[in-house]
């Protein structure tokens, strides 16, 4: 009685330990006499553990609180916090006496329920182990990602594996259906693997294992993703697979005039050209820095090629491509083509297009057929003149139909001449046809007009032309 009084006076807590029970504390009130209560936190008893596809539904009996307050609960699955679902955790217990654990793997799974009241806990005996199987196949997943960073036409560093999984991410080990893998994005190379029947193979224990995969073909270098498909299942998309170009072997025109394109000559028309350094399968070798020189391949009119970019006709490749800008050719002609060479030496391009150079803007007049005299005054010239409308490079502007006027430019008396005669032509001015004004019936009238003449051809806006000497006897 004395020991009890001391306990009551000093208000010290007393915890009693009995097998299987966690006891609450004594409370006291009053000075000389008091009352005390004790209680225990019983273990929860799991009622059912109902398996589903990667899921178990749990129920348990409610545990009464030893005193005031409420009891909450948390669940452990296979000795740790559940991977998913509605069950409470040690950090966040729940008051409900039922919950579901999701995201479980197939096989044997163990569960306990722990009751929590204030600072006291009491854990149930483990539920009878629950054996789970995977659910119905719902999706495909790249469980081994393809790894590239290899040359085109070379096996991946790692070939892919594709798993057939249920909605909870469990591999459906009973699945032996087909899995198809193909490129989903990329420059255009062809994916191949050594599996019989590729691109479609059968899963083994729910896994499609692909072997010796590679991407090859024209312009195969670049970054790809792969897709795994089966009808009725969610498609899987892989991470990036990088395919590198092979060794540089050749040049190719990646930008050039199109077949039959009409381009005006220097002074008016220009065109860009790009030359790619490629491997044997036409992949651009992006680390190539060859010095590439551009030239005319087929030159029907003795034209001269020039480009305005730094370096002119010789440019170092950047990321495997030599770019030329502001390129032009001086002479009009049909059937021009380009050529390219490089240092170090590579096979020249074989894909050059044939194109046409046309005249540029009209700038001047030229006597393309000189008038020839040697005749008496009043007699038509021995040779009648023709005047062409030309661009700055001497190309006849064949689209020109403007009028050209002929007149006397100079006169020197001689052979009995006394006064300058008058130039007369059948038609003057004459409209050009396909860029050429053809005069007819031209002569110098006047009985005393013998001497040496020059003629002038003129049109507003163009440089005039002066003929050679015309002698009137």
* Rounded radius of gyration (Å): 49 Å
Derived structural class: mainly beta
Number of DSSP helices?
1
Taking the sheet with the most strands, its summary is: 6 strands, mixed
Q: Span from first to last CA?
A: 166 Å
Proportion of β residues?
35-45%
Q: Count the beta strands.
A: 41
Q: In terms of per-residue confidence, which ranges show pLDDT below 50 for 5 or more consecutive residues?
A: 1-38
Give the helix proportion (percent range).
under 10%
> Outline, from the CA principal axes?
rod-shaped
Average pLDDT works out at: 89
Report on the structure:
It is a single chain. This protein has one helix and 41 strands. It has 473 residues and is mainly beta. A hairpin with a 2-residue loop joins strand 9 (111-117) and strand 10. The termini are far apart.
Any key phrases for this structure?
5-stranded mixed sheet; disordered N terminus; 41 strands; 41% strand; rod-shaped; 2% helix; mainly beta; 6-stranded mixed sheet; 473 residues; single chain
What would a concise description of this structure say?
By secondary structure, the chain is mainly β. The protein has one helix and 41 strands. The longest helix is centred in the N-terminal third of the chain and has 9 residues, at 2-10.
Secondary-structure topology with pairs:
Layout: H1 2-10, E1 17-18, E2 21-22, E3 46-51, E4 56-60, E5 72-77, E6 84-85, E7 98-102, E8 107-109, E9 111-117, E10 120-123, E11 130-132, E12 139-144, E13 150-151, E14 161-165, E15 178-185, E16 190-192, E17 200-202, E18 207-209, E19 214-216, E20 222-229, E21 236-237, E22 241-244, E23 250-255, E24 262-264, E25 271-278, E26 291-298, E27 305-306, E28 314-316, E29 321-329, E30 333-343, E31 355-358, E32 364-369, E33 386-390, E34 403-413, E35 422-424, E36 430-431, E37 436-438, E38 443-445, E39 451-458, E40 465-466, E41 470-472
Parallel strand pairs: 13-22, 24-31
Antiparallel strand pairs: 1-2, 3-4, 4-7, 5-9, 6-7, 8-11, 9-10, 12-14, 14-18, 15-17, 15-20, 16-19, 20-21, 20-22, 23-25, 25-29, 26-28, 26-30, 27-29, 30-31, 32-33, 33-37, 34-36, 34-39, 35-38, 39-40, 39-41
């Amino acid at each position: 009685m004395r020991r009890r009084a001391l306990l009551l006076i000093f208000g010290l807590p007393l915890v009693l330990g009995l097998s299987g029970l966690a006891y609450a504390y004594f409370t006291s009130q009053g000075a000389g006499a008091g009352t005390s209560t004790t209680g225990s936190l019983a273990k929860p008893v799991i009622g059912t553990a109902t398996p589903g596809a990667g899921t178990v539904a749990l129920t348990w009996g409610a545990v009464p609180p030893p005193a005031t307050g409420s009891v909450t609960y948390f669940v452990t699955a296979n000795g740790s916090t559940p991977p998913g679902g509605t069950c409470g955790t040690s950090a966040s217990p729940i008051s409900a006496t039922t919950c579901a654990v999701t995201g479980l793997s197939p096989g044997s799974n163990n569960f306990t329920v722990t009751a929590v009241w204030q600072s006291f806990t009491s854990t149930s005996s483990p539920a009878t182990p629950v054996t789970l199987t995977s659910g119905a196949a719902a999706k495909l997943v790249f469980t081994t990602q393809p790894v590239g960073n290899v040359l085109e036409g070379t096996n991946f560093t790692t070939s892919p594996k594709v798993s057939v999984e249920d909605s909870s991410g469990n591999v459906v080990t009973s699945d032996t259906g087909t899995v198809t893998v193909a490129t989903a994005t990329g420059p255009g190379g062809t994916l191949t693997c050594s599996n019989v029947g590729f691109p479609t193979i059968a899963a083994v224990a729910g896994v499609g294992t692909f072997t010796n995969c590679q991407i090859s073909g024209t312009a195969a270098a670049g970054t790809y993703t792969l897709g795994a498909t089966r009808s009725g299942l969610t498609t899987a998309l892989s991470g990036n697979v990088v395919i590198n170009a092979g060794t540089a072997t050749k040049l190719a025109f990646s930008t050039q005039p199109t077949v039959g394109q009409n381009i005006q000559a220097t002074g008016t028309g220009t065109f860009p050209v790009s030359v790619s350094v490629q491997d044997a399968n036409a992949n651009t070798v992006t680390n190539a820095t060859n010095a590439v020189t551009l030239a005319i391949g087929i030159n029907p009119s003795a034209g001269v090629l020039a480009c305005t970019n730094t370096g002119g006709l010789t440019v170092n490749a950047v990321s495997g491509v030599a770019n030329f800008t502001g390129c032009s050719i001086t002479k009009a002609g049909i059937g021009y083509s380009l050529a390219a060479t490089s240092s170090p030496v590579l096979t020249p391009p074989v894909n050059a297009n044939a194109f046409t150079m046309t005249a540029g803007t009209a700038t001047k007049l030229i006597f393309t057929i000189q008038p020839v005299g040697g005749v008496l005054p009043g007699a038509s010239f021995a040779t009648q003149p023709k005047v062409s409308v030309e661009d700055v490079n001497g190309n006849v502007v064949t689209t020109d139909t403007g009028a050209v006027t002929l007149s006397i430019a100079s006169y020197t008396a001689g052979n009995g001449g006394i006064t300058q005669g008058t130039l007369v032509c059948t038609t003057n001015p004459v409209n050009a046809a396909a860029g050429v004004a053809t005069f007819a019936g031209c002569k110098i009238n006047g009985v005393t007009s013998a001497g040496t003449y020059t003629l002038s051809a003129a049109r507003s806006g163009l440089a005039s032309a002066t003929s050679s000497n015309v002698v009137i006897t």
